[in-house]
Design a protein that fits this description.
The chain is α+β, with helices and mostly antiparallel strands and 143 residues long. It contains 2 helices and 7 strands; from the N terminus they run ββαβαββββ.
Length: 143
């Protein structure tokens, strides 16, 4: 694997997203870009504003969902589209803590063509695994 990326395989009712990266932190950063890519193409977003986010969970799958839910909350409350994320994950006392700085800009319909809006992040068919060549996850967004 050795690289980061994401893809959107066919799914009947919602939007399935597969994400891969060499490390868990990079997987979460790529998941942020994939999240935005569902809404609008990320290549049209400038890193004008920065936001610092913190999310906690007990396991990698829970952290992934909590992270994406935090990005959804950020978008719903500030219209911010994330094009870049610097993510750090620490573990202590059986809890995982993600701290991130995300960069992006507010949604502008004239500049950002709307693909679809995300209503929620689901645990339906959620998978996340560490492989010999890196991390891979699949998440389904309710659209």
């Amino acid at each position: 694997m050795g690289s980061t990326g994401h893809d959107f395989p066919e799914h009947t009712a919602d939007c399935a997203c597969e994400v891969w990266a060499p490390t868990f932190a990079e997987l979460l950063a790529e998941a942020a870009r994939a999240f935005t890519d569902v809404i609008t193409p990320t290549d049209g977003i400038e890193p004008r504003d920065e936001h610092r986010l913190t999310v906690k969970a007990g396991a990698p799958d829970e952290l992934l969902v909590a992270w994406l839910e935090e990005l959804l909350y950020l978008f719903e409350t500030t219209d911010v589209l994330v094009c870049h994320a610097e993510v750090r994950v620490d573990e202590a006392d059986g809890e995982m803590r993600l701290t991130a700085t995300v960069a992006g800009e507010p949604f502008d319909g004239a500049q950002h063509p709307l693909r679809t809006l995300i209503k929620g992040v689901t645990y339906h068919h959620l998978t996340i695994e560490e492989r010999s060549d890196g991390w891979r996850a699949r998440v389904i967004f309710d659209i």
